[in-house]
């Protein structure tokens, strides 16, 4: 049973689906295929979780040992959360005795074959012995290379067996996790350096037992051993963006700059000083590569599993930790942070022939050899339908209001754009306009249409650009015989940006006396977007980045009430004239005389 307080506790979680009834076992081959498909889906998902389990030593302390909290943590991780990997930060046991290690090893069997993980030796696991050249121990026999060898993530161990490497595939990329002994030797450091060089393009997380400590305010500093690790390994390898360690309390964090000038997040997580030795409390690092953030949460699955009316006061108090060192978000632009060693592989430019079909009525791009943008310059219609555009600057405008730019959307066919610097006070800008005889001017699109455009708004978005136009057809709606609209002088079709940066697509259909209008959310600045206006012959839907916006009217909309006047990029016509121009970048523009599906868009 799931109680209300549990739902609130895990409000940031992606809950696993509940199983209502037993399902017959699949044949081995079918089950293997489904597991493979599931693994592939998880690897390609932009979201995944890394579980961090710090010092559990007080749960495995001779006669007082109680593995129940850790058993529940393992059950939770394998049955209730979609976790990609778990890493233990050392001090699995209190004394490292055969009996303690045996009990811990048996407890870990609950996740063997279910969840890949790493374990490293803390000082209590090896009786405080010196570095990883200490030889055989009860810990090494239980948590050495043999334990990890069957895991799909295992990438090898140092010769001594105390240091291991793991390659995790999640978030549509691979990640390297190094699990290093609490006192790694120079030989161990050389091994770790070799692993990083073997996987030079993988972002890496270093886990160890002793690296940083914290003051009561949560401000972390490197320990003596941590300074050695930083100087001899971490700071010179730009791949390492996060370190995790236990050993010390209270928890804390800091950010250090490596030799490349990039951030390395240094985190301490340890709860053995809390009630019931921390009760196998876990910290989940929830990676979201689409949002460029890692959301961190800390809680005890053991206390969570109990009914609220049966929890003791201390269990309720320790159920979840929400202070700034236990529940927080890290904003990381992953592509930018990893660009120095693993630059994103961008799609190559595509020729016009790859995106022009028999349904394409106009296609413009701005990567032509020596593309000019002086007044009167032509931008060719690459569809072959003679809907060429011609450059014209508006009143009060200098040459700098329009320029060819190398900026472009990653998925854009052409690797170029136009930069528009239009605005108000006084009105100025530039437009690209079809000729008076262009076939596009009179097309009604009664069977449907798709208009696509790549856009980027500047960051910062300076000045007043309310109601600037992106494209429009000239021709007053009153002249088209339309009476159900805002102003008889406004054009019969236009895409605009409101004062709140909402897209507004308004069309006067060829058939209906109406003005169905679509509205988007507030568009972001400093980021390329793909906008598609799709009409299936009866209704219009606007998409941003392949996602349907919410405010698409259900009103019938058949065609566009064009009047034989030019189509224009860079502004919206009003009373057959123009005021302010577009402010930002504009990439490829394609118009198709049928409704396309998102998979057929230029970003598809």
TrEMBL record:
Pfam families: Laminin_G_3 (PF13385), Metallophos (PF00149)
Keyword field: Signal
Domain Calcineurin-like phosphoesterase stretches: 65-219
Signal peptide as annotated in the record: 1-27
Gene3D superfamilies tied to this protein: 2.60.120.200, 3.60.21.10
Name of the protein: Calcineurin-like phosphoesterase domain-containing protein
């Amino acid at each position: 049973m799931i109680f209300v307080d549990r739902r609130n506790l895990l409000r940031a979680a992606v809950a696993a689906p509940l199983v209502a009834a037993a399902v017959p076992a699949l044949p081995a081959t079918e089950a293997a295929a489904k597991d493979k498909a599931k693994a592939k889906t998880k690897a390609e998902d932009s979201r995944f979780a890394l579980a961090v389990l710090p010092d559990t030593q007080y749960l495995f302390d001779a006669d007082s040992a109680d593995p129940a909290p850790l058993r529940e943590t393992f059950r939770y991780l394998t049955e209730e959360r979609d976790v990609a990997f778990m890493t233990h930060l050392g001090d699995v046991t209190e004394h490292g005795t055969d009996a303690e290690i045996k009990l811990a090893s048996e407890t870990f069997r609950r996740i063997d074959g279910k969840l890949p993980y790493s374990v490293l030796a803390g000082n209590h696991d090896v009786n405080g012995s010196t570095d990883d050249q200490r030889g055989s121990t009860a810990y090494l026999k239980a948590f050495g290379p043999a334990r990890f060898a069957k895991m799909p993530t295992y990438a090898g161990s140092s010769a001594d067996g105390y240091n291991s490497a793991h390659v995790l595939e999640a978030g549509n990329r691979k990640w390297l996790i190094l699990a290093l002994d609490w006192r790694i030797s120079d030989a161990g450091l050389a091994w770790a350096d070799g692993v990083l060089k073997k996987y030079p393009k993988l972002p890496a997380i270093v886990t160890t037992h002793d690296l940083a400590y914290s003051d009561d305010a949560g401000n972390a500093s490197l320990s003596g051993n941590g300074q050695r690790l930083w100087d001899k390994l971490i700071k010179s390898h730009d791949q390492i963006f996060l370190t995790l360690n236990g050993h010390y309390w209270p928890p804390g964090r800091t950010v250090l700059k490596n030799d490349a000038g990039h951030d390395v997040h240094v985190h301490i997580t340890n709860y053995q000083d809390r009630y019931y030795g921390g009760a196998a409390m876990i910290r989940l690092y929830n990676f979201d590569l689409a949002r460029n953030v890692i959301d961190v949460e800390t809680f005890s699955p053991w206390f969570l599993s109990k009914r609220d009316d049966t929890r003791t006061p201390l269990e309720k108090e320790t159920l979840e930790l929400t202070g700034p060192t236990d529940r927080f978000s890290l904003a990381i632009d992953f592509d930018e942070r990893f660009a120095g060693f693993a630059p994103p592989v961008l799609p190559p430019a595509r020729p016009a022939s790859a995106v022009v079909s028999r349904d394409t009525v106009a296609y413009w791009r701005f990567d032509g050899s020596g593309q000019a943008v002086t007044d009167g310059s032509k931008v060719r219609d690459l569809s072959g339908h003679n809907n060429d555009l011609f450059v014209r600057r508006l009143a009060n405008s200098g040459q700098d209001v329009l320029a060819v730019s190398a900026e472009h959307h990653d998925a854009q066919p052409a690797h170029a754009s136009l930069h528009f610097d239009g605005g108000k006070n006084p009105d100025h800008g530039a437009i690209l306009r079809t000729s008076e005889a262009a076939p596009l001017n009179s097309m009604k699109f009664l069977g449907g249409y798709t208009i696509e455009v790549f856009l980027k708004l500047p960051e910062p978005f300076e000045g007043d650009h309310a109601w600037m136009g992106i494209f429009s057809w000239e021709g007053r709606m009153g002249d088209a015989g339309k009476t159900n609209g805002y102003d008889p002088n406004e054009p019969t079709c236009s895409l605009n940006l409101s004062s709140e940066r909402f897209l507004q697509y308004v069309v006067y259909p060829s058939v209906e006396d109406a003005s169905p209008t679509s509205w988007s959310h507030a568009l972001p600045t400093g980021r390329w977007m793909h906008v598609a206006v799709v009409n299936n012959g009866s209704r219009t839907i606007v998409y941003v980045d392949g996602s349907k916006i919410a405010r698409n009217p259900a009103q019938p909309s058949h065609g566009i009430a064009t009047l034989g006047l030019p189509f224009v990029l860079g502004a919206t016509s009003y009373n057959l004239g123009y005021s302010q121009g577009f402010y930002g970048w504009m990439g490829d523009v394609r118009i198709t005389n049928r409704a396309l599906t998102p998979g057929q868009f230029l970003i598809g």
